[in-house]
Amino acid sequence: MLTGVTAEALRRIASARSLLRVAQALEGKDDTSRSAKGLLFVHNYAIYEYVVVESVRALVGRLNSRRLPFAATRAELLAMALDPEFMSIIKGAPAKTWANRAELLRKVRSTTAVAINEGLFPKDGTQFRPSQLETVWSIFGLPGSIVTAPRLRGHITEMVDNRNKIAHGEDAPYVVGGRFSVGELDKRINDTEKVCTHIITSVTSYAAEANAFQ
User: Fold this and answer.
1) How far apart are CA 186 and CA 33, in angstroms?
2) Contact at 8 Å (CB) between 16 and 47?
3) Quick one: which of 16, 21, 38, 191 could link to 176 by a disulfide (CB 3.0–4.6 Å)?
4) What is the pLDDT of residues 90-101, one digit of tens each?
5) Which domain holds residue 28?
6) Residue partners of 146: CB distance under 8 A and separation at least 6
7) What is the CATH number of the domain that holds 125?
8) Is 213 inside a domain boundary?
9) How far apart are CA 139 and CA 172, in angstroms?
């Protein structure tokens, strides 16, 4: 189901390792190596976000293809399936509030097939920290943990924090990169690959289950 995403993620992981080799070759030459090492956090984060977003897109696509009725779909997923109705209540005119509420509740019990906008993503405002994965796991009903080892939660948080420091101008890339050795960053790339592989494996396995999304 995610063959193309897997191939692209591996290509980006390989690119990250190439960048690290460049950083290693330039060590000791002004701030260039430190900057390259700092930018690895931006690169790693981009790989991770890509995998999460595309995995959710694939799950939504698979759900839509199942044509499950609203009444048979897991309650948490209805938060996405009924997004247009929720937005109508939130943003609609007061005169239509009760009619919109009634329509939403009728749809929950209906045999109408669920069809979610494949571009809809359940962002929780944490910029893809571990709680964002928890949200995805909870909504879709994915089994098991969001990571294969507790320490990988810390890896995700560190990756997001350092990416944000660079992207928002809080720290320059060479400042962030100067805090890490080449060996430490090699481990960070390996951990990003582990996180992404687990997400893809979990999503693919779940989507193949007969009772998925119910």
Assistant:
1) 14
2) yes
3) 38
4) 998 999 999 999
5) 3-68+119-207
6) 130, 133, 134, 137, 153, 198, 199
7) 1.20.120
8) no
9) 37
Residue 195 falls inside a structural domain: yes
The verdict on 13 and 37 lying in the same domain is yes
Q: What is the pTM of this model?
A: 0.95
SS3 per residue for 131-180: HHHHHHHHHHCCCCCCCCCCHHHHHHHHHHHHHHHHHCCCCCHHHHHCCC
* 214 within domain boundaries: no
8 A C-beta contact, residue 63 and residue 77: yes
* Phi, psi dihedral angles at 211 (to 5 degrees): -100, 20
105 and 43 part of one domain? no
Provide the sign of the torsion angle of the four alpha carbons 77, 79, 83, 88, taken in this order.
positive
- 83-119: burial string, b at 16+ Cβ within 10 Å, e else: eebeebbeeeeeeeeeebeeebeebeeeeeebebeee
Q: Both 127 and 182 in a single domain?
A: yes
Helix, strand or coil, per DSSP, at residue 25: helix
Q: What count of other Cβ atoms lies within 10 Å of the Cβ of residue 14?
A: 12
Token output for 77:
């997923």
Over residues 1-39, the pLDDT tens digits come to 899 999 999 999 999 999 999 999 998 878 999 999 999
Q: Would you say residue 192 lies in a domain?
A: yes
- 91 and 41 housed in the same domain: no
